[in-house]
Amino acid sequence: MIISTDLYIPFPRPLVFATYRDKLIELIPYMPNVRSIEVKSRHQEKALVNCVNQWYGGGDIPTGLRTLLSKDMLKWTEYNTWNESEFTLVWSIKTHAFTEAVHCVGKNRFLSNGEGTSIESRGELKINPHKIGGVPQLLKNRVAGVVEDFLNKKIEPNLLQMRDGVQRYLESKTAQSKSA
Description:
Number of domains: 1
Helix content: 25-40%
Low-confidence stretches: none
Order of helices and strands: EHHEEHEEEEH
Shape: elongated
CATH class: Alpha Beta
């Protein structure tokens, strides 16, 4: 599956880029699909920042339904390399359910667009049914399809929700600075 999303935020590119990169924890209240994020590591070397973040999803899933889902199905680790000189983010995601079967990688480009910022998210999600463990051979293709469909229905809405969260966060900070 190809991931291709174009987003726009009406704030300058350096501010948008830095907010996505540096304010992740502060953005959680703006993302109802996310319960929490744990920063596992962060290392800066000149214009590059490498991060490993563990995400805990399921914020918008009813509590009763959440108990039926494996905790691993609602958790993933994201590996990021932020390049400030190119305004790019190269990312990969490792799911905690069907880890060996899921391959998800991509790149975001932050582009100046008038007074705002366009964000191009491009990536791919592949599920290898032969690497799904604990499932009878006859069901592996079906399970792979269900997992890919589930993730497909989450990725774009999560990207849009993150964009909306960044925009609302920046609007609130702008309003606070104007009233100060």
